[in-house]
Amino acid sequence: MRLLPFTRSPARLVWAVLCVLAFNLGPIPAAMAQSLIRDAELENFLDDLIDPVIVAANLEPEAVNYYVINDPTLNAFVSGGQNIFFHTGLIVAADTPGELLGVAAHETGHIAGGHLARFSDGVGAASVPIYVGLGLGILAIASGNPDAGMAFIAGGQHVGTMNFLSYSRGQEAAADQAAVTYLERAGDSPQGLMDFFDNFREMDVVSGAERYKYWRTHPLSSDRIQALRQRVEESPYRGETQSAQTRYQFEMIKAKLNGFIDRPEAALRRYPLADQSDPAHYGRAVAYFRMSDVPKAIGEIDHLIKKYPDNPYYYELKGQILFECGKIKEAIPFIRKSVQLAPGEALLRLNLGQALVALPGSDQDPATTQEAQKQLRKAIAFEKDLIFAYHQLAITYDRQGNAGMADLMTAERHYYMGDLHTAGNFAARAKDKLPENSVHWNRAMDILQVVKIQRGNGR
Questions:
Q1: Mutual orientation of helices 312-324 and 294-307 as an angle, nearest 10°?
Q2: Which of helix, strand or coil describes residue 458?
Q3: CA 147 to CA 144: how far, in whole Å?
């Protein structure tokens, strides 16, 4: 499991509205520094669980991306087109995979309904009274009547908020109904979505806790709840439709996440030694690893490897434990085994390439560099914007004395990071060192052309 730096940047219009609505309450940050979690096991689980609903919505699974953000709050949202984001807080709080699937189906309803494309309509409706109230308030304050000025501003905020939430509630209700339709088409139960609303909305009302922010971004109404409940009660798939295997995998995913994102002491309280279930062994393995208690961590994961010798993710975790405690040479056989068991996983091949690159000088030779390069190139063949793989590839080419390819890989890394200025500089260097009209020379020229176009557009 990798925690990658990630800045959540919701649609700029969202932040613009929120900043206006709350400008007199104090500053609102433009972004929140968070971590994006990359984990092959987690991502495969989400694909298997959600893709049938995506197909039922007449969308292409390959075009819809799922991202997991390391954030303890209960939330999920759609942003940047067909991208669904889940907070870890939502995943670990869900009692069943059906609840998580219900939320995913709801977010799919937003995508299929084109709600993001029409979001500006709601913003426009909200912003008019806000700006009118703001303008009148400023005039009143300037004329020496601050109380009246603040009343104008507050009134404009209130009307604007009501306009915006009214528009948003309509979209939320539409997404609920679409979610039920898609779940039924996929042969799944919509009960999970209803259970999610019932379980966590009640907690939010009682506690008002910030961790239940899902309801701030997905406002509920009694009419909306009643309409959803009626659809669920009439559904031919009302009962639990998730298989025992899916429920087991979900518990394993939650245990792994809890091990990585909880404080280790809290994870060990959640999974005490008396609990000899598979999820408990998984959660304890990660918790001990994070406490640097390697023998105990290895003991827990070895229990799972012995029980399930064909599971690539247990070998992956054992390799990660050994790698990150400095036992790189010992880690490689387990990382290689994970690749053998799941050869189509880009992240596992990245792990192997990284481990081979990280071997100390005494264990480095041309064959090792060549193997690392092979694994890393296969990783980006599966996932072309795997940024860290380009960084590692640049190291392998540098070791081979191929400065042109090292520069090109560095250009690729910055290109996929969105740093076009640096990408252009390295692409220009690569162009001068690579054989003219070769595949790699042409790729350097492509990057330079993109940079030129962006600069022409003033970016």
A1: 160
A2: coil
A3: 9
Phi, psi of 345 (to 5 degrees): -95, 115
3-class secondary-structure state, position 76: strand
Can you list the alpha helix ranges (DSSP code H) found in 325-435? 328-341, 346-358, 366-382, 387-399, 403-417, 420-433
Phi-psi region of 58 (alpha: psi -120 to 50; beta: other; left: phi over 0): left
Q: Where are the domains of the chain?
A: 2-234
Mention every residue, 6+ apart, whose C-beta is less than 8 A from residue 117.
none
The answer to whether 257 and 203 are in contact (CB under 8 A) is: no
CB atoms within 10 A of CB 453: 11
In eight-state DSSP terms, residue 405 is H
Dig out the tokens for 286 from the structure. Answer: 């990660």
The answer to whether 166 and 207 have CB atoms below 8 angstroms apart is no
Hey, is 433 helix, strand or coil? helix
Check residue 458 and give its pLDDT: 60
Cα 343 versus chain centre, distance? 23
pTM over 0.90: no
Sequence-distant (6+) residues with CB within 8 A of 15 are 28, 30
pLDDT of residue 138: 41
Residue 294, Cβ density class (10 Å: 0-12 exposed, 13-18 middle, ≥19 buried): middle
CA–CA dist 92, 140 (Å, integer): 50
By CB atoms closer than 10 A (0-12, 13-18, 19+), residue 187 is: exposed
Q: Confirm if 270 and 282 have CB atoms less than 8 A apart.
A: no
Positions of the chain with pLDDT under 50? 6-33, 118-144, 146, 149-150, 152-167, 204-209
Residue 25: predicted pLDDT: 28
Interior/surface letters 312-329, b for 16+ CB within 10 angstroms, e for the rest: bbbbbbbbbbbbeeeebe
| Alpha carbon distance 208, 202 (integer Å) | 10
